[in-house]
């Protein structure tokens, strides 16, 4: 049985959880409680030395230890519904938006959270090594996020989905990222009708309830 290592509140495993649900890929779930530091135990390090979730372990024992690998594998294993685009140009648009959202939005929010949260003192980055918080990085993240949102609102105005004319991985990454913005108390919908309408469409999908 395919095993999915998950942590329910965390945004990164939620992205993979939504991919698996959209594809209807059967799996069992093992919870790694990040709040208890279970990602740092010898048992979990033996599965993923990077000490992060999501992780998917396939029937043959292959370990997929990040969203990029899990999404690529899922598209090949279960092509329907396509999430990575169908034409060469669509594939380019999905890859490009996915990467842009990760670096400009997800990372900006993570910079704020990980460099301010008391519970993340000395855990400013995920992984096996401890890093001290840098308050200036939190400030920078707070400044970067509205810049991304301004451009994203312009892009989403008059569009149904982020990268192509249908729902793709870019919608999953962006939808999870913008929910994550709530963790640093940013209301992404306020004054942004294009983003708000698209998020309302996402909220109708059963996979987004997960
Ligand atoms: N590159 C990874 C990033 C995964 C990641 O950062 N996961 C976080 C949860 S959102 C984690 O495992 N954190 C462990 C920690 O904070 O020690 C991916 O997207 O797959």
Structural write-up:
The chain has 210 residues and is an alpha+beta fold. The protein folds into two domains: 3-77, Glutaredoxin; 88-209, Up-down Bundle (Glutathione S-transferase Yfyf (Class Pi), Chain A, domain 2), CATH 1.20.1050. It is 49% helix and 6% strand. The protein has seven helices and four strands. Strands 2-1-3-4 form a four-stranded mixed beta sheet. Helix 1 (11-23) links the parallel strand 1 and strand 2. The structure holds glutathione (GSH). Glutathione binds at residues 10-12, 34, 39, 51-54, 66-67, 123, 126. Glutathione is lined by residues 10-12, 34, 39, 51-54, 66-67, 123, 126.
List the helices and strands and how they pair.
Blueprint lengths: L2 E4 L4 H13 L4 E4 L10 H6 L7 E3 L5 E2 L2 H11 L10 H27 L20 H22 L12 H12 L12 H11 L7
Parallel strand pairs: 1-2
Antiparallel strand pairs: 1-3, 3-4
Helix pairs in contact: 1-3, 1-6, 4-5, 4-6, 5-7
The site of glutathione (GSH) has 13 residues, from α1.
């Amino acid at each position: 049985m395919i095993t999915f290592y998950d942590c329910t509140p965390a945004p990164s495993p939620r992205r993979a959880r939504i991919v698996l649900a959209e594809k209807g890929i059967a799996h069992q779930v093992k919870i790694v409680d990040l709040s208890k530091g279970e990602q740092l135990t010898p048992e979990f390090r033996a599965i993923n030395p990077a000490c992060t979730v999501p992780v998917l372990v396939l029937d043959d024992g292959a370990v997929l230890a990040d969203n990029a690998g899990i999404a690529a594998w899922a598209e090949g294993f279960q092509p329907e519904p396509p999430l990575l685009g169908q034409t060469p140009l669509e594939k380019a648009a999905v890859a490009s938006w996915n990467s842009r959202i990760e670096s400009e939005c997800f990372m900006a929010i993570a910079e704020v959270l990980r460099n301010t949260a008391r519970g993340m003192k000395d855990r400013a980055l995920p992984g096996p090594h401890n890093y001290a918080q840098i308050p200036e990085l939190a400030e920078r993240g707070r400044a970067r996020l509205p810049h991304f949102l301004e451009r994203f609102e312009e892009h989403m105005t008059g569009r149904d989905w982020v990268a192509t004319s249908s729902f793709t991985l870019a919608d999953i990454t962006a939808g999870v990222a913008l929910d994550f913005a709530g963790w640093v108390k940013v209301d992404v919908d306020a004054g942004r009708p294009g983003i708000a309408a698209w998020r309302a469409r996402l909220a109708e999908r059963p996979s987004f309830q997960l």
